[in-house]
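User: Round two. Same drill as before: sequence, then structure, for each protein.

Assistant: Same drill it is. First protein:
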Amino acid sequence: MAEQEIILEASGLTKEFKGFVAVKNVSLKVKRHTIHALIGPNGAGKTTCFNLLTHFLTPTSGRISFNGREITGASPAAIARMGLARSFQISAVFPHLSVRENVRVALQRKLGLSFHFWRSEKVLDSLDAQALKLVDDVGLSAFSEAQAVDLPYGRKRALEIATTLALEPEMMLLDEPMAGLGQEDIKRIAQLIRTVAKDRTVLMVEHNMSVVADLSDTITVLARGEVLAEGPYATVSKNPLVVEAYVGTGHG
């Protein structure tokens, strides 16, 4: 595997909480311009692993590099500025702003104008065209003036993706993007993720196996905090250890 193909690499990631090992010696290589899924039964350590990669948690041991640069120990904000953005964490949606205004605030953050709410209308208006394009990209044009609080659940997810895209990340980490969505919304968000991944890399934690099968280039399966298997869905889904991990915990 050529080194330039790898955008995010973790080696020997371990996280202990007062004697409990939540993640144990996890190594991961995510190829540029792919959709990589992190799956596993409940309690497998997926979210902990995600938190380690974005440094919302500090690893007990192990190293992480992004674009060939070590990011172990960097702050979540610094990591986001480097181009590794985590959706549904940093994309805080303001419930009483419109869809367009939410995306505009995210664009301001990218420009370092987050706290300049007293800026002239002219500056803010110049961001409107960009904001409306992003709103359109995620299929929310019809909702651009709706308050975020009034959006249906699946559309809120699309808005969260739009506000993350406003940061122009090279790589997006999506934490269970399909959680709580109905079938129609799942299709819509899956299509959105596919579109988003055309010119960037996506790493996602997901429970929905049919979504993972359809979307992912590579799947890493975690069980009890360790990597159980890795590869394309066709290979991973037939792995006896993976089948046992899912069946054994009552998750088919």
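Second protein:
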Amino acid sequence: MTILDRHVLGTWLKAFGLIMATLLGLLVLVDMQRNLGDFVGSGAGLWEVLFYYLVLVPGNVPLVLQISVLLSLLYALGQLHRSNEFTAMRAAGLGLFRVTRSVWVFGLLLAGFVWYLNASMIPWAVEAARSSREEMRRAADARKPVPGRAGGFAALAYANEGAGRMWFLNSYDDVGRRARGVTLTFFDTERREVRRVLAKEGYFDRWRNAWIFLEGRELRFDPATGERAAPVPFAHRIEEGVDDDPELMLLLLKDPADLSLFELERAMAQVGSGDSIRYRRYAVEHERKRASPFGVLIVVALAVPFAVGGVRVNPAVNMSKSIGLFFLYFLLSKLATLMASFGTVSPVAAAWLPDMAMAAIALWAFVRLR
């Protein structure tokens, strides 16, 4: 690496490190303002709270990385241009890419680093942070004098279309892992009801990989006529073939954007139909997370011409342009997700559409600058 490369890269990395640390610190402070009171009220120890914030940071790296790269490049390259260093470099016969090649190389390394994190650490960190947060919130709720509040989910419905089963739980306690007021309906291949299990309580036995129902009755139906046979009461019943995991049921209630890469893959495997709106939403978010490393290079491609070409205007103008680009990216992401949900475009195309649009803008800016 030449002296010029070290100078350009060093100027950028100073700004990048400061902005990245500031944005991650702000995210932690916002989370503290929102959740720290519950954590203290849960009786959690210092190490539990510290563990939560340690695993919270890696999960937010992709969120702040791109905007940190953009803002730091706009600042660092703008500083070099305003001090006439870029003018001297160009006067010496160096092209724009030659001057910024160290930035491109480090951007490529960052993209590889994000890809590695997405494939290993980030999914674990997202799941660990959410699990730790929910556990401390449940403990805080349990200390409040509200009966039945801790760990409770009310009116939980779930459809396993591939297996022909429909669930409805009046409530589910994810601390004791018990469901109350269980209704499990079985359908044939023509979506006609053939059997229904009603139980006061139920739980999923992971050793048997089956559901166990307590104090209920079974109803059977003639699928051709709809006539119901006499109910068969039971005190204890094991449904060997029913392997629907309640944790996966709860997972499917969450927004796809809040799930990790591994959880999205589990959800897609469970939903199991590429023609459903739910499957396409998971698929879009899955492809978007996989495409996130490429976004780092696009940000570099956007920042370099904006920083070099817009130096003679007020720095606030460049900042406004960058905010406008991120707003445009957000709108394109929402539009692409909506189009994919209705099957207008494929999930892969929807995930890459915003990035391709930004890449086109970056190419136009480079051509215009030259």
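DSSP finds eleven helices and six strands in the chain.

User: Perfect.
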